[in-house]
Structure formats: structure tokens, C-alpha cells
Amino acid sequence: MPMLTKTPSEPAARSDAPRTKRPRDPRLDVFRGIGMLIILLAHVPNDHWALWIPARFGFSDATEMFVFLSGMASAIAFGRLFDREGIVMLSARVVQRIWQIYWSHICVFLVIATLMAIAGNKPDGTSYIQSLNLIPLFTAPAPLIVGLMTLTYVPNYFDILPMYMVILALMPVMLLAERLNRRLPLLLMAALWLSAQFYLVHLPAEPWSERPWFFNPFGWQLIFFLGFFLMRGTIAPPPDNRWVMALAIMIVVATVPFAWYMVLDASVFFRDAAHAIRPLTDKTMFGLLRLMHFLALAYIAFHAVGVGGQRLIHPRIYPATRVLMKVGQQSLAVFITGMVVAQIIGIWLDHVGRTPLWTALANLTGFALLIATAYLVAWFKTAPWKA
């Protein structure tokens, strides 16, 4: 979860820069790759390995990592385009990317819904359709197909990509605000985040109730644009000193009793306290304590990997980090593949049993499929048939 920044410079100077390809930062790709593997475990139903992912020991989880790093990657891809070509070309590129993500969302929804229908029932008799709350879709498909296409029907499992689309749509506004005044996008970010905290803005998730999207994009845009403007240099990174490191470690350690299930099961005090602070750890609105916990983890990780991520490319571990980098570079394709693979793993474990051996085999197979997806997509992107 690195904090990577570039030296701030004037827009006019940036627009005249040569169009050389920026070297990829290993920290950005490695941590995105790690995030993809963690998200797979988090999506597998009743996966025992998920009890040991970082989210079980703190307030933030791999979602923050995914959104924050996506913001940083977007600063490289979209921010430089804005500096070079202006708002029209930036907006066109953003629309194209939203279009790609929109159809990825539709396709993955239909694939998983079909998979649930084919799978039938769990060994206990519960239908897989019911497990993802898809019964209304199969009962009365006409209005919900309309809802699916208009993003007014967004079941919980399928909500990250719609959130990401809304955040991307805010990017031209934020970059124009930055051009007017470097502090203006920070004010907009704070205003949107506060409006989400007080339930002033939300988007409907289903037509038969008032339930909002599980991930409120107006709350989650804060972590995305923090990564975005850190990478652009609009926001200065925190200082590198031992006192800040000590504070970050204290924050991470102090959150463990309020998040780890073993402590919560054993202690009424911590269970009640965790309930009392829930508005500050709320995932839907992106509560304040989630932000603090993630930034503390990011600060620690940034310094743990060395200057420029040198420790990540050490010869002893580079064979592993090189694979993670490839996964991180193809994060969209890997993510949507992981959503499907996670449900297949869950169905498989329902029928063979969640023994340590079967769980390990299923999860490792899932990792292998994500890695294979990354390499396959990278190969297709080279357009080898043109050679």
C-alpha cells in the first residue's frame, strides 16, 4: 500500500513534456497484485483462509488498497493526459474507460447469475440463487434487467465496479478544480465525503427498498483521490521520521482488539466498543477510522519496501514479486475473473467439504487462475498476431 508521489510542477510545463513512457513503479504493481489475491479470498464464501487476511485485524481491508492504488495508477494514465491534451481528451478517455468497466460489470453479473442457476442447490438445500439474493431477478426479470442496465439494481456482491465508474466520472471535475486552485479539489473531496457520512447522498441498489449501494462512491472517492493527488504531487506526502512511524504502528496495533474476531468473541467490552464506534468504521460510507487505519498501514508498507521499492526487486524475492507485478498490471481483468472464480471455489467447497486440504487446494488453484489470467491478458495486449 505504497504512497508514491511525483514532484509537483506547473500544468503548462507538464504539457510541453516529451511523451516518454513512464517507468512502472514496482510498489504500485506489487501491492495491487497482493490486493487482488486478498480480494479473491474475501469473496470466497466461508473461506477459512479469509480469517487471516489483514481485514480481520483492522478497520480497513483490500478494498481500500484497491481503490487507493487505482487512484495512483489513474494519476499516471489520466493525469498526464489532462496535462498534455486538456479536458476534452481527458473526458473522452474517462468515458471510454467507464464504458469498458460498465460492460465488464454487466458481463460478470450475467456470468455469475448463470453459474448460480446451473449450480442449483447447496447440500443443505439452500439455492445458490438465494445465496446472492438473486431470487427477485429470476422471479420478475423484466424490471430488474432494466435496473441492471441502469445501475439501479446492484446486489451487494456486484457493487465495486459501479462505485469505480462514479468515481472515474468525478475525475474531470477534480482536475479542473486543481487547475483553478491546488486546494480546491481537497475541499471538494472533503465535502463529498462529509455528505456521505451524514447520508445526504447515496444511490439506490434495488427498486423494492431504500437500500443504497453497499459502497457509497461519494464516500469512497476520498481514498481514491488521496492516492490520485499524492501521485500528482498536489498533496505532500507525510514526513519520513521515526515519530510518524511510531504513531502509525500504534494505530495499527491499537485497532486489533476492536476488529479481530477472537478478541470480540472473548470480550464483551471490546465487542460493545466495536459496536459503539461502528459509524466511524462503516464500510458503506467509508468511515473516518477506516481511513486512519489504512493510511497508517500504507505509511508502514511504504517504508518497509525501501526507497523506490528496492526490496521488492531484490534477486531473492524477485521471482515472486515479478508475478505479483504482472497480476497488478492487469487488475481489472484479474478482478472480474476473481469474482467468478471465488463463486466456483465456494460451490466446490460446499460439496467436497472445507477441510484444510481441500481449502488449501481450492485457494491455491484460485491464485493460479488469477496469475494465468494476468499473463494471458498481457499476451493479448501485445497483439502478437500483428507481428
SSE string, helices as H and strands as E: HHHHHHHHHHHHHHHHHH
Let me know the number of strands.
0
Mean pLDDT: 91
Rg over CA atoms, rounded to whole Å, is: 21 Å
| Basic shape | globular
Low-confidence parts, pLDDT < 50 over ≥5 residues? 5-17
Summarize, please.
It is built from 18 helices and no strands. It is mostly helical and 387 residues long.
Strand-helix topology:
Elements: H1 11-15, H2 26-43, H3 62-85, H4 87-119, H5 128-131, H6 135-139, H7 141-150, H8 160-180, H9 184-197, H10 217-232, H11 242-259, H12 261-266, H13 268-276, H14 278-281, H15 288-304, H16 318-329, H17 331-352, H18 356-381
Structure, explained:
With 387 residues, the protein is mainly α. The protein is built from 18 helices and no strands. It has helices at 11-15, 26-43, 62-85, 87-119, 128-131, 135-139, 141-150, 160-180, 184-197, 217-232, 242-259, 261-266, 268-276, 278-281, 288-304, 318-329, 331-352, 356-381. Residues 5-17 have low confidence and may be disordered.
